[in-house]
Write a structure and sequence with these properties.
Two copies of one chain form a homodimer. Chain A contains 27 helices and 18 strands. Chain A has a three-stranded mixed beta sheet. A three-stranded mixed beta sheet of chain A has the order 13-14-15. In chain A, β4 (255-256) and β5 (261-262) form a beta hairpin. Chain A is elongated and about 95 Å long. The model of chain A is unreliable at 1-73 (pLDDT under 50). At the A-B interface, α2, α9, α10, α18 and α19 of A face α2, α9, α10, α18 and α19 of B. Chains A, B: Keywords: CBS domain, Chloride, Ion transport, Membrane, Repeat, Transmembrane, Transmembrane helix, Transport.
């Protein structure tokens, strides 16, 4: 995932630039004091030669430097990578599109609408099925493993030689983790982790390569089973969100590149806008299956992705979520032998909490717990940040990554064992609390080791036990030791090259210290604090909130998983506190990882203090433009220019070398590639060539071939191409004086990829892209600018 | 609310217009084939004289016609009223604004953010308090009324002369309703009804006069208490949404016009954008208090209002909702004598349903019930539509409206009485089912009349009883008769001049026929259908969905009120079916009323088949423009022109009489009014006049004085005004070839009020406003154009 590359420092180039200046209304010197940046450094045609030479030189230097200085920190959060491309969530309304829409009858639109619903239903169904599959396989394999280990431990406790059982346990776990890690490292490194940061990026509009492929899904499912069974401090909930998204991307496009199969259906949906909508539904279905939280799923998708709320879209997303929960619930009920018993909607279920069981005076305590969660979460994130930096520097080869995963598995088993060994917390099982794999160890007959139940259980069960076991089930020292060790284990585990999520470990961690607080309150002698279980719930919420920093969606997910609406207020207060406190110290875990990948992620709003910036200062300039009718040779040269990988090209009229032309359209690299591939040249029009249709563009979507693979002969280079029919004739434009927040709002609300900046005569003077906007960010000391680099 | 006025037919004027034509890229004849419309008929200055004369003539004619033909139908849904103004949800980023933002420190922005949270907390608190007040007053007064009536009925049953008790009951009810209706009709007619359509319009961006005033709130609260106590078929839930919105508008602006009090706080929020955000929070808090559904409340606000999803805003709205539920819950717990018992979050509570108590084979039955709900809902809406037309034509005087309300109250009491009298459905109260006011009537001792419990209870209790009373509590004939009569009563009641909502009557109606279906299934002898209560729930959902046609938010509201997440899937399926079936026959109730008011309401997307329309055809043209520096006399003349009430004026440079000028800004009527009021003339700049600040605009917001109230002397008319500093220098623009869906998306996503259409040299050729977009709508026979009229 993360390769060592050189950090190119652009700051020195940009030093002469004074933010806030140059806002005079009629200043027509576009980008006068602006530094050239790589992405759009081409400018008008005649400048390419010079600039690209510079760029190529730099490229060479950078390669040499990379070889010389492998130890330089390649990643930090003050950097923005140029390697990520954006998705285009604005419809390209060119003539082809308008013709197609014009030919469609109202009935045709209805059919499209119905197929959207069918696809969403399918997405929900398949996501639920995958969740069910993972759940059942994990349950079966884990049960088998627990049985074996328990038998050996029980045997060795009696016979002596406990060491052997530790080794057996560690080896078993390591073997599973190794299998999972190997598959991930070799076949699909993008399947590592929970996948939530990647999906967040996708929904935000950043193209993360290979993230929604079928192969990724297969590796992810296998990987997550291995790592959960391998006893790592991980959950299977996060990966469900990624899985749902992959299912959605596959189903909605009616084909799979991994399988090399095209069903020729749903071709209408082969564009970024439509695909994004379905991926939102998939992610929601994933959340829904993971937590039994359909509304939470919808809110997650909206929180992360939707730039524009659309009633029908939301309703469809909700449908997918519902179907997903229902499918999981239904098939699991069959597996459990009560077909049709629909009471356990998600992979994790917090169990039934007593209605309205908290009192007003407990709310301040909950808020304090939120603060604790925020601090612990920030600590977790900071630690994980340094660990990730370390990993990027030193553990970037596959075999090292696999070894680290194996080590983590072995360490987890060993530490767990030591904890169990040292603990003298023996418990008699209660009436309603069947312990599935009670480990007696050194406890008297009829009792079992309390801490062992946490480790000899799937983490989901452990969380539920912490919430609901009767007061006194765990003694405080056990909980403290568990919290302490599990904190570091979970922190180490997140970021390993295995497929696994951080939700469940966070919940478990929080539930443990929450229960500890509950215990302390119960033991304080004040009779009003009777139930440590609800403190465990609040602790879990606080810890999870402190780590991931989600807001509304997390509240709703927690409330839905609790199944009790009255807990909404305290959960919200806890999450709010943990977010505020946590944000003071460190960012959210997902955001940290997104930043470490230098992804140009756009927030909700431009930084509050950025009103003094205008489009003129933000834009890339000069811009590479084409004429309506352009020479093939020129187009090929521009597209082949490796140093300036432009993706959008304004089409201008009255294009002279002296001044910029008037905007009359916008065309994308992908469109030009298709045109070149089909050789849509004016000179060939007489050859009765068939007219290019939207279908041709859809067939090529989303993996357009690179320009290098398209052969253009010397004769053809002299031909011309008429772009009028294919360009988007009405790209959104802003004047140069537009403030950054205004540009940002337009960009974000419409999901744009390119925004053309024009002067007062509609001449193209610049282009704003995602990276131009993502550069500005509010740091501790006011507005900061990130550096751009080809990492 | 609805005055009789003449329908001006513009269709004949527009006949020469062929949709879809004129899309050639370089056609520079703006609006060549376009009919002139009133709103922006002014055009460039020199044309005003002529056009306004025509318009004034027309005005005179129309007045004469109004007098001649009072019986012509003034309202139908093919009409769009020009009288409604729009709200401006796009920030006016003029120099003053940018200067102010520039001077604010990051700390300042934090303070603003904190005050936003404080305001939202206050909104939630006050909304909860109002809900609590209404609830408790209704309970006390209704209990008193029931006691009196019950005593008399019991007495007369023994002594004979039951007629007297009916009359007593009818008179009591009528008295309450009369009080409520009088207050509404005399003091604030906008407080009639549930207020939901009005709030929908507000959030959509339409200015409904007087809708968020304190006086409206007071009348609403008094009115709703009277109508609920008066025994009408109404609920107090809908009005809570309106109340919340009013609270929000008042608190966030820090002043009240009704009280003539300005606290001089929160001045930063005195603009449409910010106010809208708070009103969203208020509406959400209202829903939350009404149904104990904080998430549902957030979704309601988003579904109706939010054009652009913003994480922090949503989170704040949720906070307000939570606080509101909590406040209501807390104060009610004190009233009920269990302070701190937080188990009943909303005004209505569906009670606890057994978890996962439905089976797979019941889902088809639920879906069929959804279809029934859709049909019944459509019938209800169609009937109410005709009734409303009738009311608009004949019952438009206050005294008639009050008389109608009194009649409805008397009729409700009488019909209820006849139902009770004819019913021989006697029930023995169950162990867990205390009946508060059991009416024995002609039942044996120890039993009570079953139908009387429905009428001698607040409708909320009746709904809960229908959900939870044990099987056999109601016999099928009773339920059928109740459904039949209540259907017509509820339909008559909605639209009366009283403050009242339609949620509870719909739920009650649906619960009744749902329970009837449940009864029939239970009696069918198939043992698997044991519990009629859940059918009552599904019936309630189906009926409500069939009437109001809300989607996601209603599902979540129902699920939250049920308190059981597992009922999510069947509720969603039921609501979906009822919406699809209902939409086939008639529109939703709120939409019907919005259309009958001819409000220019914008949907989520442009009609699917409207891609062939371009901005050129949609826009109003020619446009009234100003120069950067404009003569005061000209401005006053333009603003005073009553026939063409322009609200936004593009500022152009190079303005000649021959061709349109280049856009360089946009200024609003309200801004010009403030400038004229403060006499910001270039010639006065030497007089050391203080510089106009944003504060001056905020002080005038939102009720800017009419131009007639501003005196401009003949000398002053010769002065000039420099608009540069005050105009929005970067209005959003689109080229003429932009398709309607694209214009629509931009307009809707950014919450615009004016969108300037320019040619390829950036010259102003037209202006798109809300009414231009709202005109296009997808009817049964494809795309239809609504007519514009000064109703």
């Amino acid at each position: 995932m993360a390769n060592i590359t050189k950090r190119v420092s652009w700051s020195s180039l940009c030093e002469d630039r004074a933010p806030g200046e140059g806002t005079a209304l009629l200043d027509d010197t576009p980008g006068a004091r602006r530094c050239r940046r790589q992405e759009f450094s081409g400018g008008s045609l005649f400048r390419i030669g010079r600039l690209s030479t510079i760029d190529l030189d730099e490229e060479v230097t950078s390669k040499e430097e990379t070889l010389k200085q492998p130890n330089e920190i390649p990643h930090n959060e003050k950097l923005l990578s140029l390697k990520y491309e954006s998705l285009d969530y604005d419809n390209i309304e060119n003539q082809l599109f308008l013709e197609e829409e014009g030919q469609m009858s109202p009935m045709g639109f209805k059919c499209v609408e119905i197929s959207r619903w069918v696809i969403c239903g399918l997405i929900g169904f398949l996501t639920g099925l995958i969740a069910c599959f993972i759940d059942i396989v994990v349950e079966i394999v884990a049960a088998y493993k627990y049985k074996i280990v328990k038998r050996y431990i029980d045997q060795f406790v009696v016979e002596g030689g406990l060491c052997a059982s530790v080794i057996l346990w560690a080896i078993l776990n390591s073997a599973f983790v190794m299998a999972g890690s190997l598959v991930v490292a070799i076949f699909e490194p993008i399947a590592a982790g929970s996948g939530i940061p990647q999906i967040k990026c996708y929904l935000n509009g950043v193209k993360i390569p290979r993230v929604v492929r079928l192969k990724t899904l297969v590796v992810k499912v296998f990987g997550v089973i291995c790592s959960v069974v391998g006893g790592l401090a991980v959950g299977k909930e996060g990966p469900m969100i990624h899985s749902g998204a992959v299912v959605a991307a596959g189903v909605s496009q009616g084909r799979s590149t991994s399988l090399k199969k095209d069903l020729k259906i749903f071709e209408y949906f082969r564009r970024d806008t439509e695909k994004r909508d379905f991926v939102s539904a998939g992610a929601a279905a994933g959340v829904s299956a993971a937590f039994g939280a359909p509304v939470g799923g919808v809110l997650f998708s909206l929180e992360e992705g939707a730039s524009f709320w659309n009633q029908m879209l939301t309703w469809r997303i909700f449908f997918a979520s519902m179907i997903s929960t229902f499918t999981l619930n239904f098939f699991r009920s069959i597996y459990n032998g009560n077909p049709g018993e629909l009471a356990n909607p998600g992979l994790i279920n917090f169990g039934q909490f007593e209605s309205g069981a908290y009192k007003l005076y407990e709310i301040p305590i909950f808020i304090c717990m939120g603060a604790v969660g925020g601090v612990l979460g920030a600590g977790f994130n900071a630690l994980n940040y340094w660990l990730t930096i370390f990993r990027i520097r030193y553990i970037h080869r596959s075999y090292l990554q696999v070894i680290e995963a194996i080590l983590a598995a072995a360490a987890t088993a060993t530490v767990s064992y030591i904890l169990m060994y040292c603990s003298d917390d023996c418990q008699t099982p209660g009436e309603h609390q069947a312990v599935e794999y009670p480990l007696q160890l050194f406890c008297p007959d009829g009792q079992h080791n309390s801490i062992a139940t946490v480790f000899f259980n799937t983490p989901e069960r452990s969380v539920r036990n912490l919430f609901h076991n009767f007061p006194g089930s765990y003694n405080s020292l056990t909980l403290f030791l568990f919290t302490f060790t599990y904190f570091f284990l979970a922190c180490w585990t997140y970021g390993l090259t295995v497929s696994a999520g951080v939700f469940i470990p966070s919940l478990l961690l929080g539930a443990a210290w929450g229960r500890l607080i509950g215990n302390l309150l119960t033991n304080s002698g004040v009779s009003i604090f009777a139930d440590p279980g609800k403190y465990a719930l609040m602790g879990a919420a606080a810890q999870l909130g402190g780590i991931v920093r989600m807001t509304l969606s997390l509240t709703v997910i927690m409330v839905e998983a609790t199944g009790n609406v009255t807990y909404g207020l305290p959960i919200m207060l806890v999450l709010m506190t943990s977010k505020i406190v946590g944000d003071y110290f460190a960012e959210g875990l997902y955001d940290i990882h997104i930043k470490l990948q230098s992804v140009p992620f756009l927030g909700w709003e431009a930084p509050a203090t950025s009103h003094s910036f205008t489009a003129r200062e933000v834009m890339s300039s000069p811009v590479m433009c084409f004429n309506r009718t352009e020479k093939v040779g020129t187009i090929v040269d521009v597209l082949s220019n490796t140093s300036a990988k432009h993706n959008g090209f304004p089409i201008v009229s009255d294009f002279t070398t002296n001044e910029p032309g008037r905007i009359c359209g916008l065309i994308l690299r992908s469109q030009l590639i298709v045109l070149l591939k089909h050789k849509v040249f004016v000179e060939r029009a007489q050859l009765k060539q068939r007219k290019l249709l939207l279908k041709d563009f859809r067939d090529a979507y989303p993996r357009f071939p690179p320009i290098q693979s398209i052969h253009v002969s010397q004769d053809e280079r002299e031909c011309t191409m008429d772009l009028t029919e294919f360009m988007n004739p009405t790209p959104y434009t802003v004047p140069q004086e537009t403030s950054l927040p205004r540009v940002f709002k337009l960009f974000r609300a419409l999901g744009l990829r390119h925004l053309v900046v024009v002067d007062n005569e509609n001449r193209v003077v610049g282009l704003v892209t995602r990276k131009d906007l993502a550069r500005y960010h509010l740091g501790k000391h006011g507005l900061e600018e990130l550096q751009l680099a080809q990492t």
